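Workshop exercise sheet. Pairs work together: one partner reads the sequence aloud, the other fills in the structure field after running the prediction. Swap roles for the next sheet.
Pair: D.N. / O.F.
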Amino acid sequence: MTTTNRPSLRRSRHNRVFLGVCGGLGEFFGVSAFWFRLAFLIAFIPGGVPGLGLYLLAWLIIPSE
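Structure field:
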């Protein structure tokens, strides 16, 4: 049995542009926060509500560091 030392999902304090959601997701999944920022930006383009709604929902759900 192997155990992984995956960090817990938290909003980042040091890798943040706005609220730290993308930085926290990037640290949790081990990828660059740039990709999460790009995904939220693409979701924001069709009218704003999908991307902004997902981002704010993640901000409410994911605890801060």
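Discussion prompt: Helices lie at 21-29, 33-44, 49-61. What would you look at next?
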